[in-house]
Specification:
It contains 23 helices and 17 strands. With 561 residues, the chain is of the alpha/beta class. The strands form 3 sheets. A 6-stranded parallel β-sheet has the order 2-1-3-4-6-5.
Length: 561
């Protein structure tokens, strides 16, 4: 580390102290990081703050950013990650991209080689913003110590404004270590945010479409939760008796068992609807790209897209109407317009009954497999045992392919803000970072991390972080010894597969034990429930490693391409 100058021992006003003060003033509660010399002043600022800012240090930079992202998604306050220069930043790229696709309010502060040697080959010299610009709302460098606090504040303001997302700022070495008196002038103050209220005429147009509909469906996605609109969204659905399908962090807005929740009937709902209103989520592969209706003699459905910002509205499909802005205002405005339009809810009988019948039939068809005594273990048996053990406020995290797809079908949250998955980017390795953040954000709740054995390989070393920081989490690994999302499709395409096998019954539980946690291997169905109870009762990071049947693949309807 010869390129790093040794600063004087006490610099209370150095750039790092400014950065911490600005982060805290903008709502950040915890710093997630992996130690690096370029960002020492930020640590110093956190330690000497009053009160000190907690520092959670991890084993891979992507975990730090994933933890910051999960913090933003669970608490609806911004997450804060600090990455050292060069590989510290590039190691975080996949996690930053995930935050970008998820619309997560994250500020990533990077270290940077010194300006006075730029171009000379300093340690880890790399122009990060050029790489980060496409996957952030903005990426830039602060060169002046006097401007660090203002720049960090701007980063948080931008990250938390609609549409939310990650913001990256790196700070040159001398600006981070130096004091304001040693640097140049501050940058211009941040500009005010534009008006974020949805257009009332567009809302009225949507109410008109709803009045003419016979078979409407309302889809609630992650941004409904992130925008704080979950209560008014539920109230609207109940007032108008609208069938609801949820995805992402929209899950739980209508709790498990709610009469209007039709997620298990989505094939019938999307196939036969005449109007689909999609709020707070993109019209991507998870939602059939926005193409609905046309089945069983029906016409193509009209599609309405509702987003928190104009840039999120779909452009790849024709829309009958679209509106962007504050989602609470949208739902309250739509309820008022619908009331004024004299909506008579013709769907409240036959359409709801048809969807309820499809939902109930799908649920009944799964009963046998959720209690399956098959050996090797059918993955559905795991969820049959797990779901009854979950408290209403349990935070469930999915990190994997086929195994986690089952979770998406059978783990229905009882309340919003209790489900995390990688989102539309589909990046594996999110799990340990998400679990770290969940345990901090919800200290009294159950935190359950569902891992595929493939996903476990990306981040399992960060169980050490759970142990060091005393963060108990129940981890459940669906261990089928293969890359299930690749092996079965490749066999179907080519009649063979390569690069799709892992170790059968690999002892991931022993990895956790070696890192200071605990765990066990489960190989028969009857062992599942007792092992899960031991995990919940343990009070330590605990991995239940369940060997499942590699011949069983999740019956998905889309590959995402």
């Amino acid at each position: 580390m010869a390129d790093l100058p040794l600063p004087p021992p006490h610099l209370p006003d150095h750039g790092g102290a400014q950065a911490v003060a600005a982060a805290r003033a903008n709502g950040a509660q915890t710093m997630f990081t992996l130690s690096g010399g370029h960002v020492f002043p930020v640590y110093d600022g956190a330690v000497k703050a009053d009160p000190p800012m907690p520092i959670i240090d991890v084993r891979h930079e992507q975990t730090a950013v994933f933890a910051a992202e999960a913090t933003a998604r669970l608490t609806r306050t911004p997450g804060f990650a600090v990455l050292t220069a060069g590989p510290g930043v590039t190691n975080g790229v996949s996690a930053i991209t995930t935050a970008y696709f998820n619309g997560s309010s994250v500020v990533v502060l990077g270290g940077r080689a010194p300006d006075y040697r730029w171009g000379s080959g300093s340690l880890q010299e790399f122009d990060h913003p050029r790489l980060l610009d496409p996957i952030t709302k903005r990426a830039w460098t602060e060169h002046n110590s006097a401007g660090v606090g203002r720049s960090v504040s701007q980063a948080f303001e931008l990250a938390t404004s609609r549409h939310r997302g990650p913001v990256f700022i790196d700070v040159s070495l001398e600006a981070l270590f130096g004091t304001p008196e040693q640097a140049g002038q501050d940058r211009e103050p941040a500009k005010s945010r534009p008006d974020e209220q949805p257009d009332p005429e567009q809302i009225d147009q949507i109410a008109g479409l709803l009045k003419a509909a016979q078979r409407p469906v309302l889809v609630l996605g992650s941004d409904v939760w992130l925008d704080g609109a979950e209560a008014v969204a539920r109230a609207l659905a109940e007032e108008l008796a609208l069938p609801v399908i949820t995805n992402g962090q929209g899950r739980g807005i209508l709790p498990a068992g709610h009469e209007l929740l039709m997620t298990r009937a989505r094939s019938t709902a999307f196939g036969e609807a005449d109007l689909v209103i999609v709020a707070g989520t993109p019209l991507d592969f998870r939602l059939g790209y926005g193409e609905y209706g046309g089945k069983n003699g029906t016409q193509a459905a009209l599609v309405v897209h509702v987003a928190d910002a104009p840039g999120q509205l779909a452009t790849h499909v024709p829309l009958a109407a679209a509106v962007a802005g504050d989602l609470t205002s949208f739902f309250t405005g739509l309820a008022a317009c619908a009331s004024g339009a004299g909506l008579n809810r013709p769907w409240a009988k036959d359409w709801l009954a048809r969807l309820a019948a499809a939902r109930d039939a799908a649920t009944a068809a799964d009963v046998a497999l959720l209690a399956s005594d098959a050996d090797p273990i059918h993955p559905m048996r795991i969820y049959g045992e797990l779901v009854p053990l979950l408290a209403p406020d349990a935070v469930v995290i999915g990190d994997g392919g086929d195994f986690v797809s089952y979770a998406g079908k059978y783990v229905e949250p009882s309340q919003p803000g209790c489900w995390l998955d990688p989102g539309p980017y589909g990046c594996l390795g999110t799990g340990l970072g998400y679990a770290i953040a969940a345990r901090i954000a919800r200290p009294s709740a159950q935190v359950v991390l569902l891992l595929g054995d493939g996903a476990a390989g990306f981040s399992l070393m960060d169980a050490d972080t759970l142990v060091r920081h005393r963060l108990p989490v129940v981890m459940i690994c669906g261990n089928n010894g293969i890359w299930g999302l690749e092996k079965h499709p490749m066999q179907a395409l080519y009649g063979y597969d390569v690069a799709a096998d892992l170790q059968p019954q690999c002892r991931y539980d022993e990895v956790i034990a070696a890192l200071g946690g605990a765990g066990e291997l489960v190989t028969t169905p009857g062992q599942i429930a007792p092992a899960l109870r031991r995990a919940f009762d343990s009070g330590v990071p605990y991995l239940v490693n369940i060997a499942t049947d590699p011949l069983i693949s999740y019956p998905r309807s889309t590959t995402g391409v």
